[in-house]
TrEMBL record:
It comes from Microbacterium oxydans. GO terms for cellular component: cytosol. Its EC number is 3.5.4.4. One of its GO terms (biological process) is inosine biosynthetic process. Gene3D superfamilies: Metal-dependent hydrolases (3.20.20.140). InterPro entries: A_deaminase_dom (IPR001365), Ado/ade_deaminase (IPR006330), Metal_Hydrolase (IPR032466). Pfam families: A_deaminase. The lineage of its organism: Bacteria, Bacillati, Actinomycetota, Actinomycetes, Micrococcales. Keywords: Hydrolase, Metal-binding, Nucleotide metabolism, Zinc. Residues 20-367 form the Adenosine deaminase domain. This is adenosine deaminase. Belongs to the metallo-dependent hydrolases superfamily. Adenosine and AMP deaminases family. Its cofactor is Zn(2+). It comes from the Bacteria. SUPFAM superfamilies: Metallo-dependent hydrolases.
Length: 371
């Protein structure tokens, strides 16, 4: 098999892009179309590092290849700078949904941090409303094109600021009006989830679903804090849970592994890992294992029975799509359609939706993969 220039691949005679998929870890400010950034920057009088869409796309990709999470996060200053009005937020959210639909995604969760979109004078509530407006326009536009898609918002607080309780209250206030969950993002190392205990207590009191970026730029201790302080139902990446595993012997396909208590808990409780292959490579999250995708502990975690899901993290920064991430895994680990279907079942089961709706997604996936 080979990945075509659009990032698609034909596997067992089927286009991967055409198959139903679920996208759980997908940042709004990491998914802007370069052409849209240029138009919005032009209108707002903002200077960009490149003014041609393909060159700007290439700039994002090269900045993101630095191997440092901090440098990678700097590219967001550019995308966030053009997302400071209600109209801009609505437009990028609409395009976010349309791009997912065109990639075969049937359900997505978009995460973004309202506190980063107040420079133009919007209130926190207005930012959430503007994004919701765009999501609904995108769902309707996709519907008209014959793609059925639904997208929920994950309201994100930043680890290095102190507004998490306010953001948690915002998320709960928008339950039933677009918000399906809460997340914390930003620099992980040095900013533990325990700093946000009040926000997590509030969310737990309100039975509001939480995912936490953890096990990306920091190791098992950060995952422990996400689970204990954050009561996280999913782990944003969580890839460094593999540091709590010790490979004892490896003979061909037979791997003997010793589990730490934390890894055993995450595996046995089926706490979903929002793994993002390209991003994990670019941010150095898998540096302990190697420098290529084939070194990613994705396959080890999958074979050991962890609930692995495949994600894009930031489509613009990594120049990727969910189809392309799956194709890269097929290339690295020779997965077949049954494996890819298993990842989609895991993601559907992990969605922050009522159980009936998750079951519907599972049915749609089973139907789509039944070829
Ligand atoms: Zn992320």
């Amino acid at each position: 098999m080979s990945i075509d220039p659009n990032g698609d691949v034909t596997i067992q005679g089927v286009s991967l892009r055409s198959l139903p998929k679920v996208s759980l870890h997908d940042h709004l400010d990491g998914a802007l179309r370069p052409a849209t950034i240029i138009e919005l920057a032009d209108a707002a009088g903002i200077e960009l590092p490149e003014t041609n869409a393909s060159k700007l796309g290439a700039w994002f990709r090269s900045q993101s290849d630095s191997g440092s999470l901090v440098k990678y996060l700097k590219t967001f200053d550019v995308s966030i700078s053009v997302m400071q009005t209600a109209a801009a937020l609505t437009r990028v959210s609409r395009e976010f949904v349309q791009d997912l639909a065109a990639d075969g995604v049937i359900y997505g969760e978009v995460r973004w941090a309202p506190e980063q979109h107040l420079a133009g004078g919007l209130t926190l509530e207005q930012t959430v409303e503007a994004v919701q407006q765009g999501i609904e326009e995108g769902e309707e536009a996709a519907d008209r094109d014959g793609h059925s898609i639904r997208v929920g918002q994950l309201i994100t607080a930043m680890r290095h600021t102190d507004r998490s309780l306010e953001i948690a209250e915002l998320a709960v206030a928008f339950r039933g009006r677009g918000a399906v969950g809460f997340d914390i993002a930003g620099p992980e190392d040095g900013f533990p989830a325990s700093n946000h205990r009040a926000a997590f207590d509030y969310l737990a009191d309100n039975f509001f679903p939480v995912t936490v970026h953890a096990g990306e730029a920091a190791g098992p201790d950060s995952i422990r804090s996400a689970l204990i302080d954050g009561r996280a139902l999913r782990l944003g990446h969580g890839v460094r849970i593999a540091e709590d595993l010790q490979v004892v012997t490896e003979e061909g396909d037979e791997v003997q592994v010793q589990f730490g208590d934390l890894a055993r808990w995450v595996r046995d409780r089926e706490i979903p890992l929002e793994l993002s292959p390209s991003s994990n490579l670019q941010t150095g999250a898998i540096a302990a294992w190697g420098k290529t995708l084939a070194d990613h502990p994705f396959d080890l975690l999958y074979q050991l029975g962890f609930s692995v899901t495949v994600n894009v993290d930031n489509r613009t920064m990594s120049g990727t799509s969910l189809t392309r991430e799956l194709a890269l895994l097929v290339e690295a680990f020779e997965y077949d359609l049954d494996d890819l279907e298993a990842f989609q079942f895991n993601a559907a089961s992990a969605a922050f939706l009522p159980v009936e709706e998750r079951e519907e997604l599972v049915e749609m996936i089973a139907e789509g993969f039944d070829i």
